[in-house]
Structure formats: C-alpha cells, structure tokens
Design goal:
By secondary structure, the protein is α+β, with helices and mostly antiparallel strands. The chain has 27 helices and 31 strands. Strand 1 and strand 2 form a beta hairpin. The longest helix has 29 residues. The protein is globular, with a radius of gyration of 28 Å.
C-alpha cells in the first residue's frame, strides 16, 4: 500500500529500517527537520492519520496505507492553517528550525491541551525564543501584551508594558518605554515582522541541507571515523576492507590531507587563534577527534565503511584537567608545535595563552579593606545545542569553482580558511549559507567545510556531511570551563578596594578561541567596576578533552558569575544593599573602563549610558512583583519555603576588538523596490529584519519593500560575520550608510528630471516630491539608466569606534528547605540596547538569552568522565530548557540613543545571557544563606547544601 503524503499517493517505497523522517525528506518535504534522531526535540513532527508523531523514530513502513501530513501540506491552497497564522502574528520563532515541528504539534491541540502547554509541548524543544512567543502563538494571542498564562503565579506577564498600568516607575520618567523615538510603520522602532516569516511557518524556508536532489546530481555522503582514545599516535590505517564495502567511493586519512596547520576558530584576523589543528592529523588528542573520512553513495554505506577501517594506535599519556596539565612533567599535548609559529604561549607546559596584569596595588587594597571575600568559583562545559547540527555540502560549479553551502555564521571567513588550506585563488571559491538553524557561537568554526571541500576537490562530485546530535556533543565545541580563585575587598563605606582573580580556563584539546575567550572574559567583567587596585592572572590550558570554543558571552558569563557573586558577598559583609553597592561602584560616563591595562581601550566609548536606568527598572519591577504576590495572598508559601531576591549586572563592548568589517550594497530596482545585499547570515539573530528597517528608514519606505539578499560570498566584497553581536552595529551601519547615499543619488536624478533644486526634492514612499511634482521611483530608475547613473551604492564599516551595552537581571525565588526544590517567582531583565530597532525582536533575543542561561545555571552540563569520554551525548541525557522550565520574564529597555550605532542602536544578542547566573545564585543566597560557587546549581546540590547546614533532618 502506498503512503499518502499531503493528499497524494507516494510512488516511492521505504527502504528496510528507514525512518519516516528521511523518507519524507527524500520526497522533497524539507520542512521535516532533523534535530536529534532520537525522538527528543520534536523538529521532525508530522501527522499520521491526524496524530502528531516524531517521524525520526517512526518506521516509514508503518505509514503504508496511512495519510501523512507535513508542514507543507497543513495549509489549504493559499490559506494558512490558523496555527500558522498565529505563529506569524506572534512571531513565534527566531531561527525557525524547530517551528515546523511546533506548528504541527500545536495544530492538533484542543482547548484543554492549549490550557496546559507545559505538559503538551514537552516533546518540542526550542533553543532560541525562551518559549514566550511560542506560547502566545499557540494560544492565538498575537504580540502577547496582557496575556494571562499560568506560567508563574504573580509574574508580570506583559514583559513590555510600562509599569503600573502605563505609569512611569518611581524616579524614572522613561521606564518601560522601549525607545525615545516615534516609531514609523515599517521603519525604525516598529515591530516589523521577519521577512522570512511566511516561509518559516509553511516549511518553505531553506536551511543548509534543504537542496532538491536534482540540483546535486551524483551527491556523495561523508562520515567520519573518530578516535576512541584521548591521546594517541596513529601508526597505520588499513583502508582495504572499507573500500570493499558496496557504495564506498573513497577514504581520506591524514596522508591525504593538507599539512597546513590552522585553527577551526574564525576571526577577522586568523592570527588571533593558535595554528594547532590539521584537517586530519596523525595524532589524536581527544575522544571523538576525526581519524578518517569515508565517502560513499549513501550515509549507510559511509557508516559501514568507517566501521570497516582498521587503525593501529600508539597510545600516549593523556591529561584531563587544566590543573594537572600545567604541573611539571605533565604530557605536552602540543609539544610538537613551534610556539612562535603556531602562536601558542608555552606549548611544552600546555598553556595556550595567558595574561598577567596588576593595576595599582591589591596588597594595599586589601590592607584598606574592612571586609574581604575569598572563594573559588567554577563554571562548567555547556553545549550550544543549536537545533540544526553542523552540516555542509561542497561541489564544483560549471566554471570549476569550489562551492560550499554551510551552516555557518561566517561564510566569508570560511572561504578564506578554505583558500588557505587548499591553496586556492580567491575567485575559485564561493561559500553560501542558507537559513541557519541556530548558532550561539558554535558555528563560528570550520568543522565540516574543510572535509567536504577536501573530498569534492578530489572526487569532482558533490559531497555532503551532516553531524549527528551525538557528534555535536562529543566532537564539536563547548563553552570554556573556568576555575576562578577570587579575592575582593570593600571598605565599610561601600567602596571596592581590591579585586584579585586567578583564572584557569580549559580549552580542551585545541586552542580555538582560547585566547579571545580568556582575554574577553577578563575584560568588561572587571571594567564595569571602579576599583583602583585590580590584579588578574589568567591562563588558557590544553587538556585531552573535547575542545571548547566560542559560546554566547565569549568568556564574560563565566567571569561575571564569579565577580557578581562576590559583589553580593561584599555588600552583605559590610551590611549594604547589594544594588546600592553596585550603584556606588559601577562606572559612569567619564570613568575609565579598566581591566588589565592601565589605559582604557582607545576606541571604546560611552556612546550612550543606561546602566543606572537598568538598575532602577529591575529594582522597581521586583518591588512591584512583591506587591503583586502580597495583594494576591501568595506571600506565605508555607513553613518549608524561604524566599529571596537577587540581581546582577553586566557590560559588553558592542563590537569585538581590532576591526570587524562589513560591506553592503543597496540598489533601486526597476519595479521601484529596493534590494539590500549583505554578507551576514540569518540564524535567528534578526539581522535580516534590522537591515530592512534601517534601509527603509533611510529611504523613506517600508521594510516590506526591501528585499534582503545575504550570506553569499559572491554578493559583496567582505563581511567578518555574525558574531560578537555585530550584526546590527557593524553590518547595519554599513547598510545605513549605503542607503543614505542612495537616497541622495535618487534625489539628484529627480532634481535633474524636474529642474527643481536638490534641496526641494524629498524622498517619500515610492516617489520623490519635487515641489508640486511627484516623480515615481520607476520613472527615476528609467531616467538614471538613460543618464548612465548607477542607482546602487556601497556601504562599508570597520567596527570602530565601539560603544558599550548593559544588562541587569533580577530574580525572586522560593526554595523548599525540605527538598531543595527551586521556584522562580519572578524574572526580570532590563537592557540598554540604545534605540531599539525592532522592540518585539529585541525582546525575543533577551528572552532567548535568559532561557539559555537558565539551563546553564540549573542543569546543563557536558560531562566528561575520568577516561575522557563525553557521557551526556544525546538530548535526553543533556537537559536543555523545555517549555515547562522557563518562567515568563519581564523585559524592559532603557531609553538611550547611542552615538556610535546606526540610528542610535546598540547590540543585544549575547549580553542578555551574561547576568542571569549570578542573579539567580544571589537570589538563592538571599533565600538560604548559602553561596553556591559552582555551576550548575542543580536541585540535588541545593538539597545537600541545605542538609549540611542542618536545615534538613538527616
């Protein structure tokens, strides 16, 4: 019996053992996504005879004789399904990779199921949104203002309303208002919908591997044999049995790979990272490292080929902790490298990079202190868990150029790396990114592109590599674990006297991002506080474990956890309110922002300053929350519960240092619309919408009349990439500059047509007004062509000068002293994002950052055992927040207008993550009296700490 797919009988027959997900994708239903292949994430959800199922664990043969509906078949004709409409209206997505599965699940809900979303959405995971917009979408509540969802009793559910029914917060006349500008529909300050929204909710958005088979004839699949040992030298690899497997085309080993050393990390300057990696190496340094690549006609044949390889290893001594790795006599993991050539600080001692600095005298500062806090703080490995795993396809086009389609945040830097590795001229390489299913820094690496390029260049056929979820955990990158020995002092009158930090970061087997994460972590986390005596000793250290890399916050979240926890302890020690202590010590305009150098970075300025507003917004919101609980009679939770509040602040430079470049092009099209060509990739960061709004504002039109073409190295000259929260403030600045120049050029052509003075010509939507005459843009386009005038302009920005952005987070929590259960009663964040280009979108970025940070605070941890194995290698072993785990946070914006950002905007992508962990730890400390200095703060840790404090009977 045939399988009916979206109302039509399929002519294909599933292979034995094939799951429904891969079968449906082979029939061109690309809206069915792979996030786990284990039934854990829900991205593959479809309907079988009207019932929602996870197609990755549903045998395709079981669907014979049944009706299967995918996201592509949910709508009828041109009419969207009501749930699709609701996801569009509420913009219940960011990267959108999980959205098809969310929509398919929610489309089966009745009213009773919609009333209990924590239970009924537990099988669908989202890493981007924080679930608030998804809840609004499922319940049909549009933008969510005033929605009463029983997520947390007493929480302010608006998240964007002004305090006290529209009244300003006490002492802050601008509290609660997103920006100090009048929003024009379709332009700056408007909640412009994402341009790809319709495609996302219908399954038409094309991610990396959503390429029809007919476009890639002869496609081959690549799979990797990975090391079972933490440290070994490869003596030999016998390919014979692997090449005999039916369908296997080739096997690549270190003997076939370039000898060129490089770093998988991608930065504008490749010299920012150590050259310590080969495409395929003859030494393996962690369990999961690539050993050999097998290329075959199918995934199954490639996997069989990897199992058939015979490898002889010479085992080497491993070292698993950075504290052991820096001891005399420890095995040198990269002892074969030339430290100068590879830019490794001390390769024989496993130190990748280090910083040692002292401002003033911490000895004098501690001597002057009335209270000193000393503690060791530890942060754990965290995985990005972007819903789309790393994947790439490489092929040679009709001109013989190497083309790589990749799930990357940095297509131009990937191109440069491939040119360097394979010694290819610039004009022979093209890198493109479709829509990317999440990044969070994890896709600021070259982890798949080099392998498919190697194979495609050798075999002259298209080659595809897609990582499994297990490979994501065991063989890509994580957040850097930090161990921070901190000592801080304060005077009785509430001033910091000394800050001293001894920091060791674990970069794992390779040094990708190790220097940058260490230096950045020791930057703004200290610079946000005025203290004349600061000392930092930091080392990034190799170990034989899974490599660390770039992760949201880039070192700041780890350091801020320690420093903001210590700030609370100092305030408690001298008997001062912690927020008051912060207000006395945090930097203000005119203060130098100093961390490890005696002079501030010359290109970092207070482009605007809203930290004081953010503190006030959080304090006022927490006070209102407490009053709501009191008024609702919820103040007394019972004798086993203790309640506490805690806050933390953070600062971040709006652009990475030493240059971050973007080139964009804006043009008038023949139909009177505009096109914007940019290099930045879209992976839920919202830069596509921002580019459209900035251009629309400059061109006096609406964002809906702007077509954004992006993330293709053939489009523009260069773009450093979408990382370091630079999409708005760097690429956006280039777009704004190009659009403003185009506006002048259009007005000049209009003036020549009408004989009017240029000053009398005004660009309006779709035309130029020249006195009494209105000239349509189509007429101007035609006239310019006849005049030989090019109505296309280029914009460039180099990422300097830079500003600073601020975030403050606050929590009210309740802790059960008998069980260790933690309840978040209120979560609130205030952000200084400058002029907010798109309030709804920016709010979503903040909510997503909060949710991801909550996972990192409470339960997420990539665990590595004593032998170097990652033991949390599937989603059901690694707990990311589900719908039921995330409180509905309040989000407020300070009113500032940044002098360096485009139209006053600042970055706001990484920074919402950073203050969450210490704010929650401080709230737990306030409730229980216990300082938790090691993440995650899991429930069992809370229970044991309370028991040890004798609050719980043994």
């Amino acid at each position: 019996m045939a399988i009916e797919i979206n109302g039509a009988a399929s002519q294909a027959t599933p292979r034995p053992g094939q799951c429904l997900r891969t079968f449906l994708r082979e029939q061109g239903n690309f809206g069915v996504k792979k996030g786990c292949d284990g039934g854990d994430c829900g991205a593959c959800t479809v309907h079988v005879d009207g019932t929602a199922v996870h197609s990755c664990i549903y045998p395709a043969l079981r669907a014979e004789g049944k009706a299967v509906t995918t996201i592509e078949g949910l709508s009828t004709g041109e009419n969207l399904h009501p749930v699709q409409e609701q996801f569009l209206e509420a913009q219940g997505f960011q990267c959108g990779f999980c959205t098809a599965g969310m929509v398919m699940t929610a489309a089966t809900f009745d009213d009773e199921q919609r009333a209990n979303l924590p239970r009924n959405l537990k099988g669908n995971l989202c890493r981007c949104t924080g679930y608030r917009s998804i809840a609004d979408a499922v319940c049909g509540h549009g933008d969510g203002h005033g929605v009463e969802l029983k997520h947390d009793a007493g929480a302010d559910v608006s998240g964007a309303q002004s305090p006290a029914a529209g009244q300003p917060a006490a002492g802050n006349p601008t509290a609660g208002h997103p920006v100090a500008v009048e929003a024009t529909p379709g332009q700056l300050g408007d909640n412009v919908p994402a341009p790809a929204g319709q495609a996302v909710v219908t399954g038409a958005a094309r991610y990396t591997l959503d390429v029809p088979a007919e476009q890639l004839p002869g496609l081959l699949h690549l799979k990797l044999l990975r090391s079972p040992h933490p440290h070994a030298r490869i003596v030999s690899i016998d390919k014979t049995a692997a090449l005999a497997v039916p369908g296997v085309v080739a096997v690549f080993t270190h003997e076939d790979a370039p000898a060129q050393l490089f770093s998988t990390a991608q930065h504008e300057h490749f010299t920012d990272d150590p050259d310590d990696t080969r495409v395929l190496d003859n030494v393996v340094r962690f369990i999961g490292q690539r050993v050999a690549a097998v290329v075959a006609e199918s995934v199954g044949a490639a996997e069989a080929g990897t199992r058939a390889l015979a490898v002889e290893y010479e085992l080497l001594e491993p070292v698993f902790t950075p504290q052991e790795a820096i001891l005399p006599g420890a095995p040198a993991i990269h002892g074969d490298k030339d430290g100068v050539y590879s830019r490794i600080s001390r390769p024989l001692e496993n130190v990748v990079a280090e910083v040692h600095a002292e401002l003033g005298s911490v000895a004098d500062g501690f001597a002057a202190a009335d209270f000193i806090h000393e503690h060791t703080y530890k942060t754990q490995r965290v995985q990005h868990v972007a819903m789309e795993t790393h994947a790439s396809i490489a092929w040679l086009d009709e001109e013989g150029r190497l083309v790589v389609r990749s799930s990357t945040q940095v297509p131009f830097l990937v191109k440069r790396t491939l040119m360097r590795l394979f010694d290819l001229p610039e004009e022979t390489v093209r890198v493109v990114a479709g829509r990317v299913g999440g990044g969070f820094g994890g896709k600021q690496e070259v982890l798949t592109e080099d392998l498919v390029a190697l194979a495609a260049l050798a075999l002259r056929r298209p080659v595809q590599l897609e990582f499994t979820r297990t490979e994501q955990f065991t063989s890509t990158t994580t957040r850097h674990p930090f161990t921070i020995n901190l000592k801080a002092g304060a005077s009785r009158d509430g001033y910091l006297t000394a800050l001293q930090l001894d920091v060791i970061t674990n970069t794992g087997a390779y040094g990708n991002h190790a220097p940058g994460v260490m230096f950045h972590g020791c930057g703004e986390s200290l610079a946000v506080y005025k203290c004349v005596n600061k000392k930092v000793d930091a080392q990034a250290v190799y170990t034989n474990t899974v490599p660390a890399g770039a992760f949201r916050g880039y070192g700041l979240s780890q350091m801020i956890f320690a420093i903001e926890s210590a700030v609370d302890e100092l305030a408690i020690g001298i008997g001062m309110d912690p927020l008051e202590f912060r207000l006395k010590n945090m930097v203000r305009p005119g203060d130098h922002m100093l961390s490890t150098t005696p002079e501030p970075e010359e290109d970092v300025h207070y482009g605007s300053y809203g930290l004081d507003q953010c503190v006030a917004l959080v304090r006022d919101a927490l006070d209102r929350g407490k009053e709501r609980y009191r008024a609702a009679g919820l103040e007394d939770l019972g004798p086993d519960w203790v309640v506490g509040e805690g806050s933390a602040l953070s600062m971040i430079d709006t652009v990475p240092p030493r240059g971050h470049f973007a080139h964009t092009r804006v043009s008038l099209e023949a139909d009177g619309r505009f096109a914007v060509d940019v290099g930045t990739a879209e992976f839920g960061n919202g830069t596509t919408t921002v580019h459209a709004q900035l251009a629309a504002t400059a061109l006096a039109t609406a964002a809906s009349k702007i077509t954004v073409r992006q993330s293709d190295t053939d489009l523009v000259e260069h773009d450093t990439g979408a990382f370091g929260s630079s999409g708005t403030v760097v690429a956006g600045k280039a777009t704004l500059g190009a659009a403003l120049e185009l506006a002048t050029r259009i007005q000049t052509v209009a003036a020549s047509l009408t004989g009017a003075a240029l000053t009398d010509c005004r660009l309006v939507d779709g035309a130029v007004e020249c006195g009494d005459r209105v000239v349509p843009l189509k007429e101007i386009y035609d006239a310019a062509r006849l005049q030989g005038v090019r109505l296309a302009t280029d914009g460039n920005w180099g990422g300097t000068p830079r500003s600073v952005a601020f975030n403050v987070h606050g929590f009210r929590v309740a802790v059960n002293t008998g069980t260790g259960e933690l309840r978040i009663l209120q979560s609130v964040q205030a952000a200084d994002a400058g002029v907010v280009v798109n309030p709804r979108q920016c709010r979503g970025q903040i909510e997503g950052g909060i949710a991801q940070a909550l996972g990192a605070v409470l339960y997420e941890e990539v665990k590595v055992d004593d032998a170097g194995h990652v033991t949390t290698d599937i989603l059901r072993q690694y707990h990311i927040p589900s719908f039921a785990d995330v409180p509905r946070s309040e989000v407020y914006f300070a009113t500032t207008n940044d002098s360096t950002g485009p139209l006053g905007a600042k970055s706001m992508s990484e920074s919402p993550f950073n203050p969450v962990a210490p704010a929650l730890a401080n709230a737990i400390r306030n409730a229980t009296g216990i300082r938790f200095g090691e993440l995650p703060i899991a429930r069992d840790k809370i229970y044991l700490a309370l028991r040890d404090r004798t609050l719980i009977p043994n």
